[in-house]
Design a protein that fits this description.
heterodimer, A: mainly alpha, 4 helices, about 50% helix, globular, B: alpha+beta, four-stranded mixed β-sheet, 13 helices, 10 strands
Chain lengths: ~90, ~375
C-alpha cells in the first residue's frame, strides 16, 4: 500500500481537476474553487465520486460543504481525515 | 431478493393487488369531482390522504425501527405503481410521492435521532403532511440565486423569504425549507430547516391556481421572521445544497412511480376503446395510424417501467445515481405527456371533454415537464455527467 501524504493527494486531485472539470486550466492547491464558481454542484458531484474511488473513502452527503471542498488543500485534509489510502 | 427484475414476485404481487384494489375503491370514485373542486379545500383531499396513510402507502420504504414497513425500494415502487394504476389520481399521488422521496428520504438520511423520533411517525401515519420548499420566484434550478435567509439569533435562526410552486405547501404541517445562512457563499451557504407549522409563528400559506394536478394543493409559503430553533436545522449549516441534491436524486427517480401506474390504466382504456369503436366499417385498432399510436404508448410504458425499476434496484444496492435520476425524470415526464396526448387523440372529442380521464391526464402530465427540474435542466445534467 502506498503511503499517502497531503502533498501526494493534492497532486492527484489537481491532476484530476485539470484534466477533467477545469479543461486544462491550471490551479494552485490553495485556490478557492467553490465561491469563485470554478466548480459548480455537478462538478463537485463528480469530484466526490472520484475522491471516493481514488482514495478508498466514504464521503457522506452532509460532509459535502464549503469547508471540505473549497480548495484542493481542504479536500486533501478532509480525505486524509477520512482514512484515505491508495 | 436480488438483481434487477421488473416482474413482481409473489409478495410484491400481493402488495400490488392490495394497493390497486384500495385505490380503485377508495380514491378513484371521487376523482373527477375533486379535480373540478380543486385542492384548495382540505376537505377534498385530506380524508383521502389519511386513507392512504392507513393503507400504509406513506411508510413503504421507511425502516422498521422508525415505524415503517421496511420494504426495499423495488417493492415500494411496485406498491406505488399499482396505487397509481388503481386510482389514476395524478395530483394526490404526486403529493404522496413527494413526501416519500423528497422529504422523508432526506430526513431519514440527514436527520438526528430526535428529529426522526419527532417527525417520521406523524408523517407515515398521516397526521403530518409535508412540503418541499426550495423554489423562489427568481430561482428555480439555480439554487445559488436564492434570496430566503436564515439569520442566526439566540438559540436558532430567523427565517425570512417567500417560497413558491410548493406542492402541498399552503396546507402543509411540516415544511422542509432551504434558506441561506451565509448569503455571500451562494449555493454553499444554504442550509435546510424543518419547520413544524403547529409550533411556528410567521408562516403563511397561499393557494395558487394551476392547470392540472388539481386534486392536491399547491402554492406559496411566506416566512416572516419565523423563529427556527437550532435543533430544527437538518444536517450541518451549509449542507443545504448537498441535501437538496440528495433529495432531487430520489425525487427524479421515483416521483412518477404512481403516474407510470396510471400510464398502464391509460393504455388499457385506449386499447379497449380502439377495439370497441368502429369507423369506416372496422375497429379503430385495425387502422394503421391508431395501431402505431397504441404501439408507441406500449413502448413508452415499457421503457418508463424499466427505468423506474432499475432506479429502485440501484438505490437498493446503495448507489448514488444522479445521471440515471436525470434520465429517468426526463424520459418519464416526456413519455407521460406524449402518451396522454395520444390517448386524447385516440378518444377524439370524448377525450377533449371536461371530466374525461384523457383531458385530465393531458393537463396533469404537462406539469411534469417542469417540476423537479425542467427537461432542459435534465439534459444538461445528463450531458455534464457523461464519462
Amino acid at each position: 500500500m502506498t503511503e499517502l501524504t497531503l502533498e501526494s493527494i493534492c497532486t492527484s486531485v489537481r491532476d484530476y481537476l485539470v484534466s477533467g472539470p477545469l479543461s486544462g486550466q491550471d490551479v494552485s492547491f490553495g485556490d478557492e474553487l467553490l465561491l469563485t464558481g470554478t466548480l459548480d454542484s455537478l462538478s463537485v458531484m463528480r469530484l466526490v465520486a472520484y475522491l471516493e474511488l481514488a482514495f478508498c473513502v466514504d464521503i457522506p452527503n452532509e460532509d459535502v460543504t464549503l469547508a471540505h471542498f473549497r480548495s484542493i488543500s481542504a479536500m486533501a485534509e478532509y480525505v486524509l481525515s477520512r482514512g484515505a489510502r491508495a | 431478493m436480488s438483481g434487477f427484475d421488473i416482474e413482481p414476485n409473489a409478495v410484491q404481487q400481493s402488495l400490488r393487488a392490495a394497493a390497486f384494489d384500495f385505490a380503485e375503491a377508495e380514491i378513484r370514485p371521487s376523482l373527477a369531482d375533486r379535480d373540478v373542486e380543486g385542492g384548495e379545500s382540505a376537505a377534498s383531499w385530506r380524508p383521502l390522504w389519511q386513507k392512504c396513510a392507513d393503507h400504509g402507502l406513506l411508510r413503504v420504504h421507511v425502516p422498521v425501527e422508525c415505524g415503517g414497513a421496511g420494504l426495499d425500494v423495488r417493492t415500494a415502487i411496485h406498491v406505488l405503481e399499482a396505487f397509481g394504476e388503481g386510482c389514476g389520481d395524478n395530483g394526490l399521488s404526486l403529493g404522496l410521492n413527494a413526501q416519500l422521496w423528497a422529504i422523508l428520504a432526506p430526513i431519514l438520511a440527514f436527520g438526528t435521532d430526535e428529529q426522526k423520533d419527532a417527525l417520521v411517525q406523524p408523517m407515515t401515519d398521516g397526521r403530518m403532511v409535508a412540503a418541499f420548499a426550495m423554489t423562489e420566484a427568481e430561482s428555480g434550478s439555480d439554487a445559488a440565486s436564492m434570496s430566503a435567509t436564515a439569520k442566526r439569533v439566540g438559540g436558532g435562526y430567523r427565517l425570512n423569504g417567500v417560497k413558491c410552486h410548493v406542492g402541498m405547501g399552503p396546507d402543509c404541517d411540516l415544511a422542509l425549507v432551504f434558506a441561506s445562512t451565509e448569503p455571500d457563499h451562494g449555493a454553499w451557504g444554504i442550509s435546510a430547516f424543518l419547520v413544524d407549522r403547529a409550533q411556528a409563528t410567521g408562516v403563511k400559506g397561499l393557494h395558487t391556481a394551476k392547470m392540472g394536478l388539481r386534486t392536491s394543493p399547491y402554492g406559496e409559503l411566506h416566512f416572516d421572521d419565523c423563529f427556527v430553533a437550532e435543533d430544527q436545522r437538518l444536517g450541518p449549516e451549509g449542507a443545504g445544497n448537498s441535501i437538496f441534491q440528495y433529495a432531487m436524486e430520489w425525487e427524479r427517480l421515483f416521483i412518477f412511480s404512481s403516474h407510470v401506474g396510471n400510464m398502464a390504466r391509460q393504455l388499457n382504456a385506449c386499447t379497449a376503446h380502439a377495439r370497441d369503436r368502429k369507423t369506416f366499417g372496422k375497429p379503430l385498432i385495425e387502422h394503421q395510424t391508431v395501431s402505431k399510436r397504441l404501439a408507441e404508448m406500449r413502448l413508452r410504458l415499457e421503457t418508463c417501467r424499466l427505468l423506474l425499476h432499475r432506479g429502485a434496484y440501484l438505490k437498493d444496492i446503495g448507489r448514488s445515481v444522479p445521471q440515471e435520476a436525470a434520465m429517468t425524470k426526463l424520459h418519464i415526464s416526456e413519455a407521460l405527456t406524449a402518451s396522454s396526448i395520444d390517448a386524447m387523440r385516440l378518444f377524439g372529442a370524448r377525450g377533449y371533454m371536461g371530466g374525461s380521464d384523457q383531458e385530465r391526464d393531458v393537463r396533469d402530465t404537462l406539469g411534469g415537464l417542469i417540476y423537479s427540474g425542467a427537461s432542459d435542466i435534465q439534459t444538461q445534467i445528463i450531458t455534464r455527467l457523461l464519462d
